[in-house]
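INFO batch 0412 | record 1 of 1 | parsing
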Amino acid sequence: MPVVNVMSSDVIFVEPETDVSEVVDLLIESKVGAIPVIRPDTRSVVGVVSYIDVLRALQGTLEDEA
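INFO prediction complete | emitting tokens
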């Protein structure tokens, strides 16, 4: 079966300079585990940010406060 038959064409994405708090909002609202990061000028994918990435960043922040 081709992936086009099961993929989502209404893709949620962020840009590299998007604030992490906005990414968290999108992850929660959209009920997804990861969001592609798109370069705005070329529309090329430069990465993916996942909920695990956000949790790691939060963990580092919490450890710094302890």
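INFO post-check: The radius of gyration is 14 Å.
INFO record closed
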